[in-house]
Write a structure and sequence with these properties.
The chain has 23 helices and two strands. By secondary structure, it is mainly alpha-helical. Strands 1-2 form a two-stranded antiparallel ribbon. A hairpin with a 6-residue loop joins strand 1 and strand 2. Helix 1 packs across helix 18, helix 2 crosses helix 18 and helix 7 crosses helix 15. It is globular, with a radius of gyration of 22 Å. It starts with a helix and ends with a helix. About 2% of the residues have low confidence.
Length: 496
């Protein structure tokens, strides 16, 4: 094993290897920052270039894009409230308010530090804990996935702000929209109203672009004559000593939750980031800061986001099971370049595995260097007048929505949800619960159906399985604590 490690480090440190990793990191940063261009799409676009490379070198370039694109999504989320990737949606909750206060550079710095720490920690877990974590992942069945989705839905109470009722209504709207289309179990149409385009439901990314980005554009157009642009000034790009200390605990939160959720196949960074954000906010002494521009919120989301990458590679490499949508594409890429993931990968291709392990850490440091350059340059986007910036963002939103499936329907979905998001903002309905309902609704429904099918309609199956029961207990505790916190906050306001 020591010999494989030495060979892997030598290969990863070759100038050609470093250049390919750097190319992947820069490409990933650009892909992640562009609204609608997902990490999966970036890897697919990179695939043709890998045919002419050795498998281990090709893998290093692909992993470089994978890791960097996760951080790249935070840049547009912070600057424009337009998440470049779905998992950056939670980053926008505190990142954009920080940008409005002129602290965009600090927000991106916190995101960068969190991303690098999450990537390094998840890399260590990938190396040393892969067999153990893979065994845990194998114990998750439909009942466990359903309970995990229910636990995730309890976050709605925490991200609803001060108006819990409106937050719950927003979440219910998201759940209602998530059932539109064809039932995956029965094959029947639901709420399609005879419109064939509705049969496939709504793709999550166009909805995300519409709710966050397009609605923000509409809002800025309306506010233009009422208030001055608040994002003209950009102060302090790097974190102070105290600010750095404040994000250390959020980084630890993100590492633990991101790695664990990443290992579970079929979950992904979006669920993990919202879960981590919710738990950090719950145990924080300054809950009121979250959603108003808290560096801790940005740090925990981006740490979790990148901790998921290493966690998701565990089942992908050791079992051949994708941890999320991006690693599903990565598995296809591995097969195309002549590497078959699975239990035999570590014995049949140890040179590739240990080159990946060594390269993983080099990629994190390359991302730190490239990301530091983005901290210095990216905040200047906020100095561009709205008359120029907003049309460019709208074009990116339209192109990003269309490029997902080369379908004008997705563009119409983004615009329609832009109007919905704009109206919800006017009525002061929080948007994150709507997004959570759309993400977790299908997962909860489909896995509940599967659990009932396998148990012959025994509803007690979700309570009989230990992991499922534990998650449901956590869900109940989460709701109870959120309601208690909301009651206390209301009581304090009444007493004032």
């Amino acid at each position: 094993m020591l010999g494989y490690w030495i060979d892997g480090i030598k290969t990863a440190l070759q100038p050609s290897s470093v250049m390919l990793m750097l190319l992947g990191v820069v490409g990933g940063l650009i892909v992640g920052a562009l609204p609608g261009v997902t990490s999966s799409m970036g890897i697919i676009l990179l695939l043709p270039f890998t045919y002419y490379l050795e498998p281990k070198l090709a893998l290093l370039m692909l992993v470089g894009m994978y890791c960097s694109s996760m951080f790249g999504g935070s840049i547009s989320a912070i600057l424009l409230r337009t998440p470049g990737t779905p998992s950056a949606a939670a980053t926008a909750l505190d990142g954009y308010p920080l940008a409005q206060k002129g602290k965009a550079g600090k927000a991106i710095s916190a995101a960068l530090i969190g991303s690098v720490c999450g990537g390094l920690a998840s890399g260590l877990c990938m190396i040393f804990l892969a067999p153990f974590l893979a065994k845990i992942a194998l114990k998750f069945g439909p009942a466990e996935y359903f309970s995990l989705a229910i636990f995730g839905l309890t976050i709605i109470a925490s991200v609803s702000g001060r108006n819990l009722v409106k937050g719950i209504i927003s979440g219910l709207i998201g759940l209602l929209l998530s059932v539109i289309g064809i039932d995956n179990i029965r094959g029947t149409e639901r709420l399609t109203f005879g419109i064939s385009a509705f049969e496939n439901g709504f793709e999550f990314l166009p909805v995300l672009i519409g709710v966050f980005a397009v609605s923000e554009i509409f809002g800025r157009i309306e506010r233009k004559q009422k208030i001055e642009q608040t994002t003209k000034t950009v102060s302090g790009l790097l974190l102070t000593k105290d600010e750095f200390k404040s994000i250390l605990i959020p980084i630890m939160f993100g590492i633990v939750i991101g790695t664990f959720i990443g290992v579970i196949p079929g979950t992904g960074g979006t669920i993990a980031t919202f879960l981590a954000y919710n738990e950090l906010r719950r145990w924080s002494k300054n809950k009121e800061k979250f959603g108003q521009g808290a560096l801790e919120g940005v740090a925990v989301c981006e740490t979790t986001n990148n901790a998921v990458t290493g966690g998701a590679m565990v089942p992908a490499l050791s079992l051949g099971i994708p941890g999320d949508a991006v690693t599903a594409v990565m598995l296809g890429a591995l097969i195309l370049i002549g590497v078959r993931p699975g239990p035999l990968l570590f014995t049949e291709h140890p040179d590739i595995v240990y080159t990946l392990f060594a390269g993983w850490f080099i990629i994190q440091f390359l991302m730190l260097i490239v990301g530091f350059a983005s901290v210095l340059v990216a905040p200047n986007i906020l100095k561009v007048p709205d008359e120029i910036l907003m049309p460019i963002v709208m074009v990116l939103c339209i192109v990003g929505s269309f490029s997902l499936r080369n379908n004008i329907y997705d563009v119409m979905v983004a615009l329609a949800f832009g109007v919905i998001g704009y109206l919800m903002r006017k009525a002061r309905f929080p948007l994150p619960p709507l997004v959570l309902g759309l993400i977790l609704g299908p997962q909860a429904e489909q896995n509940l159906n599967r659990a009932l099918l396998t148990s012959k309609n025994d509803w007690l199956i979700i309570f009989k399985r230990p992991i499922s029961l534990t998650l449901l207990i956590f869900a109940f505790a989460s709701v109870s604590l959120s309601l208690l916190s909301s009651y206390r906050a209301t009581k304090r306001e009444v007493n004032r």
